[in-house]
Design goal:
This protein is of the alpha+beta class. The chain has 4 helices and 5 strands; from the N terminus they run βααβββαβα. α1 packs across α2.
Amino acid sequence: MAITYSRMHVVDDDKLVQLFLNSGLTPPHYKVDLFHAVERSDSVITAWDGTRLVGLMSAISDKVMTVFFNFIVVDPAYRGQKIGRHMVEEMLKTYKDFPTRILLANDQDVAFYKKCGFSAFEGKTSLMG
């Protein structure tokens, strides 16, 4: 079946949690917080194989200068089908006029994001509190 994409903010919480669990990204006790984080995002792109949620990307922004891509998730069974790349390209189009576009990447994913046009901040360090 062909993958379809949607800009929906509200995703069934069980499908959302299942996507994250399949990807090994969050424990099930974060179910409510995860749902609210996606629901309250400024932009959301979802990828579907029929009724199965297989990918999601979300962003929060100040609406003018800075956007933070907080979730980029593709079900491991669907990786290698350019689902992540498609979602990233769509989000970059949405925020093309923003001078600052930020995402935090796991070390093993850096090469993928560089292929999508992201680069490390030279001379800058990411800090988390």
